[in-house]
Amino acid sequence: MARRVMTAMVLVLAVSGCGSDGKNGATSSVPVTNGSTPSPSPSPSPSPSPTASPSPTPAATRTYTYERATDFTQDRKFTGYDRISVKLANEKALSIEFSSSETAVTSYATQGGKITLADSTDLPGSGAYSAGDFTLKSGQRATYSAAGGTVSIGLPDLLKAYEYFTFALFKGSNIARILVVGSPTDPKEITSAGTLTYLALIQEESNDKGKANAQALTINTSAGTVSGTIPMVNSSDTTTDYELTGKIDANAKVTGTLRSKDGATTGQFQGRLYGKGGKEIALLVSLKQTDGSFFGTVLTGRLK
Question: Which domains, and CATH codes, for the chain?
Answer without folding.
Answer: 66-183 (no CATH), 184-304 (2.40.160.90)
